[in-house]
Amino acid sequence: MKTRSLALVLFLCLAALAPAFAAGKHKGNASIPVHETVISSVTDSSIVIASDKVPKTYAVTQFTEVTLNGQKAALADLKPGMKVSVTMSDPTRLSRIAATTK
Question: What CATH number does the domain containing 82 carry?
């Protein structure tokens, strides 16, 4: 009987505290800035990516991994206007490019 009572008391305490913990959670994403990153242009050896409308050129090598919509792709498959996420191997060179069509 003591175990049931203790379990009930513990449950009621947790139920009472749950709204207090939930109040600290951020609701929505109104204050989180969104940075639209899109491809501006592509050549055989580089890609220009605009983040917040500021273009930046990155070198691409034969070892750069390219995906389009989650599938392995070639650099030539990438087109201006596609959304993109990149991983840099150094400040000017990319090791991975993950693009999606709109």
Answer: 2.40.50
Share of the chain above pLDDT 70, in %: 64
The number of domains in the chain is 1
- Domain ranges, residue 93: 37-100
**DSSP sequence for 13-62:** HHHHHHHHHHHTSPPSSTTS----EEEEEE-SSEEEEEETTEEEEEEEEE
List 19's β-bridge partners, or say none: none
Higher pLDDT, 71 or 30: 71
Residue 77 lies in a domain: yes
Which residues make beta-bridge pairs with 90?
A: 93
- For 40-61, the pLDDT digits (tens) are 999 999 999 998 788 999 999 9
CB atoms under 10 Å from CB of 59, counted, come to 13
Q: What's the token pair of residue 10?
A: 């513990």
